[in-house]
Amino acid sequence: MGRPKKRAQAMIELAMLAPMIFMLLIFVFDLARAAATWAAISEAVREGSRTSVTIGQTTAATDYAIIGNTQAFGVNLTLNPVSGCVHGHTSGMVTPPPTTGNTGYIYILSTVAGQPNAPSGGAGFVETAGAGCNAINAAGLGRYPIKVVVAYNYQPFTPFASQFMPGGITMIASSTMSTEF
Description:
The protein is of the alpha+beta class.
């Protein structure tokens, strides 16, 4: 008679703890996805920054090349340029993240005010100066640091993780390299 009671007790304990164990396991998967997202964002800005400072034999890099390379290396990420403000904002937060979950904005900036904030091939994007965007200042010959930034709004998939991060996590990665022309 003693054995059936112990077996029943173990089944009841498992039934009570199983939902919590599964939720914690799913939460760990969401955190692993966040780490993978951070790694992909870091790689994307590194490659975009590298593109911004190199020059080909006949053409120089453009904003389109930088953004295209950043998007290409941002594997499984939705990364887009900010309409009208690719070179950052003059007031408030220079690189605000998107409000939509699991998307990111790509910015091309200068590290020092007044220094070039675009590659030597020209900007390509029309900046909306009236909206508080930085003016385009293409790099000429010389060594200028150009910074590529991705501001990403990470939203967890699971409801359990979402209750701890209701607005998501803002991930901002940047890479700065000096021009080579």
